[in-house]
Every structure is written in structure tokens, then in C-alpha cells.
Amino acid sequence: MTKRKAADEVFCRSCGAAIKQASELCPNCGVRNDNYSPASSGGGRGGVHDPAQYETSVSDTWWYGVAAGTGIWVLLVLASALGGDLGAGGGILVLIGWAGLPLSVYFDSQYVRANSEWDPNVAVWVILSAIWFLNIAAGAAYLYRRHQVLGEP
Ligand SMILES: [Zn+2]
């Protein structure tokens, strides 16, 4: 006779019955379950990221901001490399790019966290996207990773 057990079950060390891993005592013989692990582990550190744990009302359109912010920075860097002067428009672009990119990353990462298996470290990405020049790489890397886990854009 072969013993069968489900994925969430273990064999009792005393009587060999298949019992739920989440049950502390064997219902068959009453011996303590050696493999007992409470089902409600609270989803602590080290666990697999579960998107269902997160709820968000953030829309999925913030990546436009990430893309636009990254694009603005590419434009600014190109303009300064070419010695061009964007004038007043350049100042506005700097403001939009500098504030808009981290803001977009902040909101979008919450959407990503609740809708994919990727759990972006929000603080790290926001900081990276606020540092001049580094933010271009950060924005591109973010969009690439986002595309991998979500299949969009
Ligand atoms: Zn037992």
C-alpha cells in the first residue's frame, strides 16, 4: 500500500498518517507534528512575494511618466553635451524631469508590486531615479524589468 499525501500535508512520525502540515497535533494518534508550520506565518521576510497581499488603486498609466521622465533626462543630457541652451524651457524640463521621474516611479512601483511577482524596493528606485544621469539608467532598467514581469508596455 502506498501512502498518499497532498502538497500541504506531511506524514505523522508516529502513526504514518497523512496530516495537514498546519495541524499541530496528529488527529489520528495525537502525537505532535514535527513538521508543524503555522499556515498564517504573516508573510514575513524571506517569503515569496505575494501580489495579492497588496491592494492599490494606483492606475497602470504611471509608466508613461517614467518613460517621459527618462526621455526628458536623455534630452537634457544630450542638450548639455552638445552645448545647446534650452533657455527657460530647459529649466521647466529640469523641474519636470527631476520631480516627475521619482514621483512616477513611486506610484508605478506600487502598481507593479500589487500586480506582478516583482516586488520593487520603492525607496531604492525613487532615490536612483532622482540622481542626475543615474536616473536615465534607472528609468530604463525599471521599464525593462516592468516589461518582463507584466508583459506591458
Ligand atoms: Zn499520528
From TrEMBL:
The chain crosses the membrane at residues 61-79, 86-107, 122-144. The keyword Membrane applies. Keywords: Membrane, Transmembrane, Transmembrane helix. It comes from the Archaea. This is Zinc ribbon domain-containing protein. It comes from Halobaculum magnesiiphilum.
